[in-house]
Fold these 2 entries.
Entry 1:
Amino acid sequence: MQFPVNQLLIKEISNFNAGSTLLVDPLYEDDFYPDDWPNTHIWSFRSQKFNANIPHYTWPQKPDSQFDNIVVYFPKSKDKLALLLNTLYELTHEDTIIYIIGENKGGIKSCAKLTHGQLKHVNKQANGKHCIMFSALFEANFQPKPLAYEEVTIKINDNAHTIASLPGVFCHGRLDEGTQLLLENIPNDVSGHIYDFACGSGVIGSYLGKYFPYKQLVLSDVDSFALQSSQKTLELNNIQATCELSDGLTKISSKFDWIFTNPPFHTGVKIDYDIAVAFFRDCRANLKPNGKLVVVANSFLKYPPLLQTHFKHVNVLAETTKFKLYICS
Ligand SMILES: C[S@@+](CC[C@H](N)C(=O)[O-])C[C@H]1O[C@@H](n2cnc3c(N)ncnc32)[C@H](O)[C@@H]1O
């Protein structure tokens, strides 16, 4: 069952300029066949599986040619759109047509406003399936900005800790209230093999690495900008750790004494339990027999019954009016 944006793209692709096409961060799926389209490549900004026949790159790896058509899938964060345009500018020539495609409910209608100063002639090219595709050209005097990390120093109990993130990464430039609850209540006996799942800016993993003794520290996230931000945060704090770009636990094979997470629960604007459900189900296999999982979540999320399906002991370690911190073993 194809995503509506892909259905619209498939309908429109035959109207594109002849030449090469780059799909930027597409919603890739098994029944979507850009590998059948002549001279089409994919540039992804998160961990995704592709059909081996299609040339694809995952940022910071990048294509080394210019393209005649570039299709950008409208990202969830507006900051990320600006960042994507900056990043892909070097793959364009002056006649490259930029297509931006997305669902109405994701905010695509403000495309012209959001890309002001970067793109010109932003025109609606097609719509259908509750989606719109805009076409545009880069402004002639467009000057791409280099990627800039924002650094912020947070205070946890009495510890000052500096984190870095790129725009579009979760809680860019600030600390999430749930994450703060987790960091303020880390059990004293944390040590050994430690894993930060869905690490974002690397705030949890780097804090653990700085203030707790560890033998192995692993951080993972599905998003390339998040993972790169984590690497930057670790570097700033002089911490040795492994960073994996991984959708869920697909690339994680170690067994840990402790897993910490503030897991994702949104897909677009909808609450989506799927990622957390799959993670709670599968993470047991990545825990040693006495290993513990520490999860922070909005109190309204119905996590306890999900956690109790896979863990014998699920206790609340700390809470605020909005968040709960669970420890599971
Ligand atoms: C609530 S944020 C937490 C980030 C960070 N740990 C913090 O506390 O600030 C959730 C993170 O989950 C990541 N994420 C979303 N879907 C994912 C998936 N399928 N696999 C791994 N990470 C995912 C997002 O990129 C985001 O960085």
Note: The pocket of S-adenosylmethionine is lined by residues 170-171, 176, 179, 198-201, 203-204, 221-223, 226, 247-248, 262, 264, 275 (CB under 6 Å).
Entry 2:
Amino acid sequence: MNAERKRLVLESWDAIGRNHDRVAVAFYGRLFEIDSAARSLFAETNMVAQRGKFVQMMGEIVRNLDLPRELIPAVSALGRRHVEYGVRDADYDRVREALFAALSAELGDGFTDDVRDAWEEAYALTAAVMKRGAHSGTASPATS
Ligand code: HEM
């Protein structure tokens, strides 16, 4: 990822300001619309707490795109934990779709083609590292 794209991701995330929870509400709302199986993965989850954890993790990811040595172990471990939550590789595509819908709704005209391309790359990298973590090491094997 080049420096310009990292900047676009970070700036657009920071532009959301105090409305990150609203983005998380839109994200999970959209996800549950397009993926009823994902809804059942979160059946027992406290969604207020979950939104907070998701927003915090996204913040760490966008702030550390420059620091792969810090980012990769944390994101890889996140992917490994997701195996235990019942998440499979194919689920990452619908999460991407839901996240982009939420970002687009929040950023409006600020979600330019360049910003979208930058997020595409950041999300693809994150999902790839999570999946690699899911398929490596100690957790039970992924089923997809
Ligand atoms: C960029 C991709 C993703 C990020 C940043 C992310 C982030 C998180 C975070 C921070 C947690 C809290 C628990 C922990 O830290 O281990 C979590 C839990 C969870 N995530 Fe994700 N996630 C992503 C992708 C996915 C996908 C693709 C699915 C599948 C639909 C998913 C489903 C879940 C479930 C079921 C939980 C556990 C909820 C519970 O504790 O009851 N996540 N996620």
Note: Residues 38, 41-42, 44-45, 50, 53-54, 57-58, 78, 81-82, 85, 87, 91-92, 95, 126-127 surround protoporphyrin IX containing FE (CB under 6 Å).
